[in-house]
Amino acid sequence: MVGRRDFLKMVGAGVALAGVTGCVTEPRRSILPYTMRPPEVTPGNPLYYATTMPLDGYGIGLLVASREGRPTKVEGNPDHPASLGAAGVYEQASILQLYDPNRARQLTYQGGVRSVRDFVRAFGPQSTSAFGTPGNGEGLHLLLEPTSSPLTASLIARVREAYPAAGFTFYSPLSSSSELDAARNVFGRPLQPVYDLRAADIIVALDADLLDEGPFSLRYAREFADRRRLEEPSAGMNRLYVAEAGFTSTGVLADHRLRVRSTEVAEVAAALLELVRGGSVGATEGAAPMGGAVVGEGRGAQWRGNEWVRAAARDLAAHAGRSLIMAGARQPPRVHELAIALNAILGNIGRTIRYIDPVLVDVGLPTHSPVPLVEALRAGAVRTLVIVGGNPVYDMPADFEFGELLRRVPERVYCGLYRNETAALCDWVVPALHYLESWGDVRAWDGTASLIQPLIYPLYGGITIDDLLKVFLLEAATDAHQLLWESWRERTGGGDDFDEFWKDALRRGVIPGTTSPEVAVTGEGAVVRVQSMGGAGGEPRAGSVGVDRVPESGDQQGGGGESAKLPRGGLVLSFRRDPKVYDGRFANNGWLQELPDPVTKQCWGNAALLSPRTAARLGVEDGDLVELRYRGGKLRLPALHLPGHADDEVTVSLGYGRGGAEEVARGVGANAYLLRRADAPWFGGGLEVARVGEARGEERVVRTQERWTQEGRPIALVATLAGYRANPDFTHEHRGSQPSLFERWNYSGEQWGMTIDLSVCTGCSACVVACQAENNIPVVGREGVARGREMHWLRIDRYVTGDVEEPRIVMQPMLCQHCEKAPCEYVCPVNATVHSSDGLNEMIYNRCVGTRFCSNNCPYKVRRFNWFDYAVLRSPEEDLQLNPDVTVRARGVMEKCTYCVQRIRRAGIRARVEGRELGGDEVVTACQQACPTRAIVFGSLGDPESEVSRSRRQPRLYSVLHELGTEPRTMYLAKIVNEAPATAV
Amino acid sequence: MVGWHGAPVEELRELEGHATDEELTEQLLAPLWSKSRWWRICFAVSGAGTLLYLVAFTYTVVSGIGVWGNNIPVAWAYGITNFVWWIGIGHAGTFISAFLLLLQQRWRSSVNRVAEAMTIFAVIQAGLFPVLHLGRPWFAYWLIPYPATMAVWPQFRSALPWDFAAISTYFTISLLFWYVGLIPDLATVRDRAPGRVRRVVYGIFALGWRGAGAHWQRYRLVYGILAGLATPLVVSVHSIVSTDFAITQLPGWHSTIFPPYFVAGALYSGFAMVIMLVLPLRAVFRLSNVITTRHLDSLGKMVLAMGWMVIYTYAIETFFAWYSGDPFEVAQYLRARPFGSYALVFWGMVFCNCVVPQALWSRRVRTSPVLLFVVAFLVQVGMWAERFVIIVASLYRDFLPSSWNLYAPTWVDWGLLLGSIGFFSFLFFLFLRYIPFVPIDEVKHLRAELEPRRSG
Amino acid sequence: MRGRARFVEPGIMAEFGAEGELEHAVVRLRERGYTRLEIYAPYPVEGATTLLYQTRPRLNWVVFCAATAGALLALAVQWFTNAFDYPLNVGGRPLFSLPAWIPVTFELAVLAGGLAAFIGLLVSIGLPRLWHPVFEVPGFERASVDRFWVGIDRRDPRFDPERSRQELTELRPLRIEVVEVGR
Question: What structural domains and CATH numbers belong to chain C?
């Protein structure tokens, strides 16, 4: 017998459920057969949709190709400020993440499958949980990833209204607030800088990987490269000074690189400031007025005498207003303050730098530090912890013992893409939607807002953060699209033309007029502050996280400050964002795991990177297994000699050694988070390295390139700008036609060719992933790479030049050279590789019998062989990503770069249909398209005005192994380094 | 008989003792009638080897070349090494039969059939590897110019169709040569065989040979012609095999000396193999009167001679690498090979191919079965190592250091090498069991030539 | 029976123990005017054979022609497939790449020659012919071991069973046998 109250309760529940549940799943919509296909779709033709990928809260605008309704490839959105048409490795590989068969598929409670309805019942309006209505949210805490989404921001605000006592924390292991803290200290308010590298002649990067790291790196890389393309020897060129410990992509392009321990960057910055301020650049011992004030006299003197510092200071002084000093996110606020001071003194602010208000929600507030949460957890004050995205159990600093604390929380909710380490400890696990499946919005580093629109109906079901937040609100039914639409409608004040505005925003992938305005600042504050600054290390601010007090967020993120005081000679342990798996979130992505590290060329794992000299001192051979002992923590991983790495420092990539349910990621590499400490998240002293023995089996380092040098062979040519100007023809021996017994084969029509400018190649590997996505290139796994069977059609060869102590690295993308006198062709017994009339070296898979003779005779070794039937290794889900224009190769056949022949033919057909000639620059290869620095130029040599034809007129043009007379269609522009005149002597 | 004893004692003869034709026939046919325990054991062992071969072979075809150790840049390794090694071994047979026949070297008579059988079986092994090492073996026939639906033809600028033609021709001609030589003996077996079945079977293969004067006259003419054809063939086949490497650009392969170099190497290993086969037979079947120390001596001399040709080519090759001044050649010959990752194999090759055979200067070694066998065995090892060095050591250090990589064999690689040896012996033991392995007619003819007329 | 006529079909045969005796017998029989004689021996016996067969058969010319034909065929095929029927740009090499075609040409020449020689042999000696009247002769099986036989064709003008037996007896053979005409 049901009582009246119960009855009413049930009715109410029913009504509310009808509403609330609506907002947490996409409503069913009827699908249409292609017999009545939508007007915009032509079967066989890709459709491009603009969307945005959020990474650590910042958006990168993308164009995503959709084939018959399935997204197949991610490309950059030329209209988006953070992309300018380029796409990095993470953006491009995220398409594979979408189809990842390991993604969480079911909403579970303590292992048992539940419906979204159940979840809503547990936390929604009728929640039975502790904080449930009409509670004030006491004991409720939400742990989110940093976000800049206006929609999410408004929802968070409303949840805060509903549950005033609820706690919020935004955490991402790689984000640092040093920059903002520094700005706050200097300008009195948190501001974030937006650089304009096009206006900068001299760039000084203090441990800043500006070309490959951060939400604006793609843009910076382009701007930087635009100042380095030498159309002719007389053209101007910017100059890049880099001070760093590890070898980053930025270090690769440095004209002057200072090998310095992370802990000493602060001193370098200080010395730089003194020289610039003291104006005593010329003097041998810069007796700067406040020399002693900033760094200890002795070391200050030492750094002031340093050649790199003096050269940089000289150049900066000479280019006031046209220079730029930037500090890296790994460095503590103080280094950023010094950078600001330098920029202020040189009058760069407003010229090469503009400041804007931070775009992240809550940024600069304590909520961006995990400490308050940790404190609350320790105090047992958290009853319900809702973790949205991220993987805190895995990537929180080890000394928090977050996993342990989490276990003590009565009610634990995790909403994420995978059943990872964190999900394993939570009783509610809610699958999250991939950004390619969801509606939303996000802002770029410069504040420009753009929309996230789904490319495909959710594959495995799931919800977005917005959906989840709405569960905690008593809301009427709206689906995510509706929600987004309304939020923008009210933000833009509606109006009749809103529909137009909306459509336009979706089409272009950018919302016009949302870029943050510049905040006028003067550098005075900086200068004043720097003068008032005490001794090195900068106050107690770098102290460890006290249990009693909640320090400013900058301290955990900054770190370093303290370790700068450690006695010299001690080893420094340094953590870095992994160029492949980021903070570990991409660890289950086969493309990225198999992508060689730009500099070490390591695949499938991480290693302890250290300089050969330090290794020799420690008696550690390349490839040895070592144990890192650091502040009570121990970690075993292989050692890897890295020429150009700072001495007495060991760098380890974060993001490996995953222990979640992800099959690809599990057991690959070692988890460096276990050594990470909250007070020094990026680097700290007191590391001990013990050799365990030779690394074997799973612990072995697998690399795609063992050799560092060119063995004295003229392969990747490098010259200084001065040398180039003095002798522009220095590559003449490596180009031009060779004597031959055969008469020339005469070609007609389009003649495809490629030119690669080594001057601007950072080795970021975006092209490699682009090629992999475009051409259905299989992943062969750790064992395959160990056996030397990686399948990449396009690889990036890395060579060390100069002396081993202070090496320079040159990156050389190596792909099929499409030789006109191709050695591979005449040795094929079955005509499986022949030449096309438009100059392509064609590979006919279904004719190939697999003698591998062609590979043996290819001097560039760019041909790949299907040792097994790799296609069957691909999961059915991942098959959805395949490009239907490209054959999936069978077992036992050769394959190689085709210059994206499918794109060439598609363009040709289009031209023929439209009854016109094919333009010389009309075809864009996947690698060319992805390249952030536009190092790759492709087009028809038949058209004398095509970009590639023009590039062929540069004097530094040459072809690799020219002496063999293979006459490659792929040619290179020698790398030009712009050394400062004085130091060049 | 006087002339028989008249000669100085230490002179080595092609035939010892005073056996009559009938005795000789009986002696040489004996292995066909009686099953010796030795034979059973050897047959069982080689059978096991064949089984291993089958397993490795099937596994490769089913799973793909990936089960081998090959990679990029080392896309060829054991497969082609074994191929070249076997085809090389296959050369001595025809050389002994044909070339020495033309030179009228009488000592060839007792060993030529073993040598020819060895050739055929070795060529079978050699022929299997190029097919097996294909990514898609089932399409091997695409190398034949037949009107295909794809309307595509083979590409005759490549050395592989040359190989195909050379090996199939060599196999066919060797087989014919062998069979023609066999016909009279098959007739003999037919006439001596106990039991109707064997008489019929051998009779069919004997084609009704009557030993008539007309038969013998045409027979000897054709045998001569075949020898005349086979001799240049021997030279051509390994020259063509060498072009698999010589026509490429790869340092270590791109060399004009390869054809003669390979032919010399082939005969080198071939003669060594003949020694390794003949010596046990001689001991087991007590044939020292037919396969005399004279034969051992001559074979030893041949090995020594070929050894020196090989040494010469090694020297010239290395010299020109240095003399050319081409950095890639220099790096290959003067660094990668002697001091690279496979230096051990390289120096092993130098020891086995250049140092060991010098022992053959001494007549004692040449005429001592045991020592001769040891030398021959080491030469075999050395020649395999040579092919390995040529193929793998050249590939693993090519033009761009970025693509340099090591090669390590898997159990399948070893299985195929040992297995092919097993299969070879398997066929060889079958041959010993069912075919007179010393040409009876030739031996009797030889006796007739050596002895003075019995009467008249 | 034109084919058969080329070969001696013995009507009567005599067996000898040694090569020398055989040769002697052939000489004597020739003196008596026999023209169609045949000898049977376990290995080639120069003396007697040269007495019987002076003319060298023209087999080598057959072989030469076959070899030439093989070479031409090979060249033709390579030209047709690579230069004429499906001309492709292969590594910028000329379509008519004669030097590259030599090896196959040579190999096919040898192959054709070898096959011609073998077939030529069989034709010229009328084999395979698994049964022959002489096989019925008692003791003939030793002709392949250590005995030497001489046979007189029954179509020989001078052949007469009685007289021939008489004349053979004078040569003191190990035995004399009359060959039954094929059953």
Answer: 12-42+146-183 (3.30.70), 59-125 (no CATH)
